[in-house]
Write a structure and sequence with these properties.
The complex is a heterodimer. By secondary structure, chain A is mainly alpha-helical. Chain A is built from 19 helices and 5 strands. Chain A is globular, with a radius of gyration of 25 Å. Chain B is mainly α. Classes of the chains: A mainly alpha, B mainly alpha. At the A-B interface, helix 9 and helix 10 of A face helix 2 and helix 4 of B.
């Protein structure tokens, strides 16, 4: 392995025969069976993104039905039982099956491209994580069709979710599905951490890492620390329900508040797990569309890291009305208010970056600017509900519904749609329509505010959340009708983007390798990239490698990697010095088989404990096959 | 070259992580420790345990600030950029380190203030 510098716009040194061999080595097999054997990170990342957006669509439809039910007082469009299932599914699917997986999907797809490598550290584990997620999602929606869907809210509080008050299978399905998503998220997190720390292009020291990669790294560490809490809580709950343990049952000496502590110890960082990658997307888009280095790189990294760890000290602010000691709650108020400092630092860095720049108002940038407006409002109401007296007044009202939709849709979905427009040419090789993109943005922006702003007022007037209807005399009808009209406009806005995306696949303009003039490495390869991502692993000397290459007219690349097996460069953690070569495994069906085996256990345990034993042996045998040593991978 | 640089600038590479880890660890200890001590403070009236927790963890976080600041000092106390190779990366980690610890110290102070005004028995 050596490092060579050469001139010219394309990084092609080797002969076409060598390139063809490299292509064969990294190729993902076609056909129906072949589809289940893919391990290349871009294939898996794309699947995560598409699957998550399908869940977004389905959960969005549930949201629209909820809004139609609430449009006028005393409506009977769907009864209370279905309403409970719908809001539970809407929340659960949006949080667990859309928001986390879509962010992981973008990270799995783009982190290796942005750090200039050919795949992730454990490609088969990646595939396993995807199948577990897919199966979990299908089973969850299947339960809705069978009227077995969970109905105790997305945070599934005991005692409501205990055996006494929720006797059916609904809560068991919820608990099991959460386990699926935890396993999937943990595999992705481990992958991302190892890949980011050990597989960066030579020269990409920690202070040169793209901001989205920093965000993905922080997100991954947060997943590793937050997810175990919900694994514990959902396991304890399923034991309570199936084995008659008494962890959360007061009569048996259990403690319902334990559920809330464990759930929110995960649940609050979860909100930031969704937000942090979106922050990375925003920085990325701002750099490209102002065409200059971001203001305050160090401050932005600091903010993301600080948000990452402070978010673990806020969870009790979800429990201000549970009768905990006031002094104890005040510690969490202090932390909740203090997290506004790093969030504010970010906003000011972005404003400084935009200040005086020649901003190109393409669609991705519009979604980012929309984020500013919406997220700042959500942040302000966040500081309001961090105060205990105020929170006590608005707890469980529509004010909260308004607040968290402002922070989650404004903070995560708007940047996400912006990032989709931004990276679409890289993923598909086609440009989306700018005109349709702008229509989509304005419809969504106006629709969003018309939907959720009135909910602040409804909450202050006392309208509780999670009621399927309300009396005419309450006077909430007009604002609810307005919110429902807004929801339809918002849905139309997102629908325009969906149509735009499908249209562009067939009719969109062909994309250049770097259509936006961006500085990071994912734009240094073809759109869409070949199976091997980069013909040669690039070498970087600053935060903005593509701008450097444009200025200098030359670039350095790594040569000498073998074309006949899947080789990637390993580098040191701090300075990304080349230290070795790793050989990655080829496509295989075993991660899929293992995922099916694990799923048999997870789903079966709802009906009978024997499935645990069956699945244990099935998983064991599939893992043996997965890890069976293969001759070609010997060092030769 | 790198080794010479290491001797001149760095005592030990692990020291660079001190600021990143000690501050947040002190803050987590403060949050959990104080939360646990409340019921005991209510029973015995010993508020000094809570103040002591704040003081000890604050000192911990400040040690994180000091170690990272000293590293930054040795690396030339300039704001980190992306050029200059390894020195720049050392500066980046040192600056991040003392800022993270400083934010942790601020959190500990913010959480320590209510101890002066609220009763642990409410």
């Amino acid at each position: 392995m050596t490092i060579e510098t050469h001139a010219g716009p394309r990084d092609v040194i080797d002969s076409p025969e060598e390139t063809a061999q490299l292509e064969r080595t990294w190729h993902s097999p076609g056909g129906f069976i072949g589809w289940f054997t893919h391990v290349n990170q871009r294939m898996i990342g794309k699947r995560f993104i598409i699957t998550a957006f399908i869940f977004f669509l389905l959960a969005g439809i549930l949201g629209i039905v909820i809004r139609l039910q609430l449009a006028a007082p005393e409506q009977q469009l769907i009864g209370p039982e279905l309403y409970n299932q719908f809001f539970t599914m809407h929340g659960t699917v949006m949080m667990f099956f859309f928001a986390i997986p879509v962010m992981e999907g973008f990270a799995i797809y783009f982190v290796p491209l942005m750090i200039g490598t050919r795949d992730m550290a454990f490609p088969r584990l990646n595939a396993f994580g995807y199948y577990v997620y897919l199966i979990g999602g299908i089973v969850l929606f299947g339960s809705l069709l069978l009227s077995m869907a969970p109905n105790a809210g997305w945070f599934n509080y005991v005692p409501l979710s205990g055996k006494l008050y929720s006797p059916g299978y609904g809560v068991d399905v919820w608990t099991t599905m959460i386990t699926f998503i935890e396993v999937s998220a943990l595999t992705a997190a481990v992958e991302l951490i190892v890949t980011t720390l050990r597989m960066r292009a030579p020269g990409m020291s920690l202070n040169r890492m793209p901001l989205f990669v920093w965000a993905a790294l922080v997100m991954s560490f947060m997943i590793v620390f937050a997810m175990p809490a919900v694994i514990v809580s959902s396991t304890l709950l399923i034991l309570d329900r199936l084995m008659d343990t008494q962890f959360f049952v007061v009569a048996g000496g259990g403690e319902p508040l334990l559920w809330q502590h464990l759930f929110w110890y995960f649940g609050h960082p979860e909100v930031y797990i969704i937000l942090v990658p979106a922050l990375g997307m925003i920085s990325t888009i701002i750099i490209t569309f102002t065409r200059r280095p971001i203001y305050g790189y160090t401050a932005l990294v600091l903010s993301v890291v600080a948000i990452g760890f402070v978010s673990f000290g806020l969870w009790v602010h979800h429990m201000f009305t549970t009768g905990l000691p006031q002094l104890g709650m005040s510690f969490f108020t202090a932390a909740s208010a203090t997290i506004a400092i790093p969030s504010g630092v970010q906003i000011f860095c972005w404003i400084a970056s935009l200040w005086g720049a020649k901003i190109r108002f393409h669609t991705p940038m519009l979604w980012v600017l929309g984020f500013f407006a919406i997220f700042v409002i959500g942040g302000l109401t966040g500081v309001m509900v961090a105060s205990i007296p105020f929170d006590t007044q608005v707890h469980d009202t529509f004010f909260l519904v308004a607040h968290f939709h402002y922070v989650l849709i404004g903070g995560a979905v708007f940047p996400l749609i912006g990032a989709t427009y931004y990276w679409w040419p890289k993923i598909t090789g086609r440009m989306m329509s700018e005109a349709a993109g702008k229509w989509s943005f304005w419809l969504a922006f106006i629709g969003f505010n018309v939907t959720f702003f009135p909910m602040h007022q409804l909450g202050l007037e006392g309208m509780p959340r999670r009621i399927y209807t309300y009396a005419t005399e309450m006077g909430w009808g007009d604002l609810n009708l307005l919110a429902t009209i807004g929801a339809l406009v918002l849905a139309t806005g997102f629908g325009v983007t969906l149509i735009n995306a499908i249209w562009s696949l067939f009719r969109g303009q062909q994309a250049e390798p770097n259509p936006w003039g961006a500085p990071t490495l994912e734009w240094a390869t073809d759109s869409p990239p070949a199976f091997y991502n980069f013909r040669h692993i690039p070498v970087v000397a600053s935060r903005w490698p593509l701008w450097d290459w444009e200025r200098d007219g030359e670039r350095a690349v790594v040569t000498g990697l073998r074309n006949d097996r899947r080789e990637v460069v390993l580098t040191s953690v701090l300075d990304a010095k080349p230290v070795g070569v790793q050989v990655l495994p080829a496509p295989t069906i075993w991660p899929f088989v293992s995922a099916v085996a694990a799923s048999i256990g997870f789903v079966g345990i709802i009906f009978h404990p024997i499935f645990f034993v069956i699945a244990f042996f099935l998983v064991f045998f599939s893992l043996v096959a997965w890890f069976w040593p293969r001759r070609p991978w010997r060092e030769d | 070259m790198d080794n010479e640089l290491d001797k001149g600038v760095l005592r030990h590479p692990l020291l660079l992580w001190t600021g990143w880890l000690v501050g947040p660890a002190a803050w987590a200890l403060h949050l959990m420790g104080s939360y646990l001590l409340i019921s005991r403070a209510c029973e015995t009236g010993a508020m000094w345990t809570l103040h002591g927790m704040t003081l000890v963890t604050l000192l911990m976080a400040l040690v994180g600030v000091a170690v990272a600041w000293r590293q930054w000092d040795r690396a030339g106390r300039r704001w980190p950029g992306s050029g200059d190779g390894k020195v720049s990366r050392i500066r980046f980690m040192a600056v991040m380190g003392w800022l993270i610890s400083a934010l942790s110290a601020l959190l500990i102070v913010a959480e320590g203030v209510p101890n002066f005004f609220l009763s642990p028995c409410l």
